């Protein structure tokens, strides 16, 4: 079909597996993501409580805001990925995305308690994330050997998780030191985001692929440089199956804020402890992201992705019960961390090797766009069920959705992985 499976030869490197995986670029990109996630998670950790418990936004309203927060990246991911491939400037496009997100933190200071203004600034932040994510992941995918991509993404996501772990703690400290002044959180978040942009400019190196000189037998010639060519990635059975599975699983994945709000309202703990839920999730993610990435390379990335969604199913089931106490909070949070460790990065590593080098960023962006649009639908639906029925029925609906999606996604991902393996070794 359309996608190339020719691998670019890479020189052998000494120093063992760790040095082979943790190249300078992977480490630098990890540092940028770590610092940026401290900034982002400071805001993300407090926003559900700020909007729902502080500004009394309805669950449907929060579902729309949360869905847009995720879904607004749909178009920008694709545009960012395509522009990065066209200009062969992944670092530049990623830097623009990081810069936009930093400006959004500053913008939150100017809009006060306006729901519309806050939503607009969150949208700008997500546009920045959408622009930067695919170029960043594409840089990772060409900065490590193909057979160690799961481990490379795992290392990156581990460093990313360190930032996500620290962010809510920093927010908690700032709120405690300033008497619950949210403006102070936004100021500190902006300063840290600027540091991330500086690190990207100084230490991340642009990497360009060496295009294959010929296509595999039976593959059509490429018409370089057209947007339709990028969309033609979906003609390839392997990538199309991964894309469909990602959309299907995204439709049954709700935003983190809903999980946190369910736990807070069920257990009725003080609002100022709300950021600790994100701390717990990211602590589990931090511990597991690296090992799970290595495991994915060994037993099959598609198996690990599906295993992560089994953990998500258990999270939703746990939200339906009336259990009380911190143990009833820790279990779903731990399972939620397992879900993220097994899916975030692993799915990108699964897709990366089947994408042609000149459209790898665009292909990753297509995959992430499908996920973002699916998250928009799931967040609005979850919020509506909660608002007009109950949070328990909303959790049951999410659990049933995962249970239905799993076998279909397993079939799609297994076939895609098998085809990729056959073509690579042929």
TrEMBL record:
Organism: Luteipulveratus mongoliensis
Ranges that cross the membrane: 21-39, 45-65, 161-178, 184-204, 242-261, 273-295, 302-319, 325-351, 372-388, 394-413
Coiled-coil segments: none
InterPro entries per the UniProt record, alphabetical: MFS (IPR011701), MFS_dom (IPR020846), MFS_trans_sf (IPR036259)
Protein topology in the membrane: Multi-pass membrane protein
Keyword annotations of the record: Membrane, Transmembrane, Transmembrane helix
Residue intervals of the Major facilitator superfamily (MFS) profile domain: 25-417
Highest taxon in the source lineage: Bacteria
Name under which the protein is recorded: MFS transporter
């Amino acid at each position: 079909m359309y996608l190339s499976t020719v691998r670019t030869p890479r020189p052998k490197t000494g120093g063992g597996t760790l040095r082979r995986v943790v190249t300078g670029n992977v480490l630098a990109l990890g540092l940028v993501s770590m610092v940026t996630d401290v900034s982002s998670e400071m805001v993300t950790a407090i926003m559900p409580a700020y909007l729902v418990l502080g500004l009394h936004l309805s669950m449907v309203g929060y579902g729309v805001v949360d869905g847009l927060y995720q879904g607004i990246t749909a178009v920008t991911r694709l545009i960012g990925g395509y522009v990065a491939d066209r200009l062969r400037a992944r670092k530049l496009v990623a830097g623009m995305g990081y810069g936009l997100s930093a400006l959004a933190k500053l913008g939150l200071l100017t809009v006060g308690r306006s729901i519309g203004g806050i939503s607009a600034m969150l949208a700008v932040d997500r546009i920045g994330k959408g622009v930067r994510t695919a170029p960043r992941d594409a840089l990772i995918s060409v900065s490590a050997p193909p057979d160690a991509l799961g481990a490379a993404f795992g290392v990156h996501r581990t460093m990313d998780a360190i930032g996500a772990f620290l962010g809510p703690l920093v927010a908690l400290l700032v709120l405690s030191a300033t008497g619950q002044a949210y403006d102070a959180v936004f100021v500190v978040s902006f300063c840290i985001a600027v540091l991330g942009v500086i690190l990207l400019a100084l230490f991340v190196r642009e990497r360009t692929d060496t295009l294959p000189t010929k296509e595999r037998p039976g593959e059509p010639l490429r018409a370089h440089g057209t947007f339709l060519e990028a969309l033609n990635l979906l003609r390839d059975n392997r990538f199309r199956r991964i894309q469909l599975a990602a959309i299907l699983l995204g439709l049954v994945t709700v935003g983190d804020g809903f999980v946190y709000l369910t736990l807070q309202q069920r257990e009725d703990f003080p609002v100022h402890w709300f950021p600790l839920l994100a701390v717990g999730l990211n602590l589990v993610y931090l511990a597991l992201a690296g090992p799970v990435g290595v495991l994915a390379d060994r037993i099959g990335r598609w198996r690990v992705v599906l295993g992560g969604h089994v953990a998500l199913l258990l999270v939703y089931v746990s939200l339906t019960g009336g259990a009380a106490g911190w143990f009833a909070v820790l279990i779903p949070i731990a399972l939620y961390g397992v879900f993220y460790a097994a899916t975030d990065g692993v799915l990108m590593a699964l897709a990366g090797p089947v994408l042609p080098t000149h459209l790898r960023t665009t292909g990753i962006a297509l995959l992430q766009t499908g996920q973002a649009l699916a998250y928009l639908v799931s967040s609005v639906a979850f919020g509506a069920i909660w608002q007009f029925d109950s949070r328990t029925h909303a959790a049951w609906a999410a659990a049933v959705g995962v249970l239905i999606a799993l076998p279909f996604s397993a079939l799609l991902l297994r076939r895609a992985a098998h085809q990729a393996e056959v073509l690579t070794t042929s």
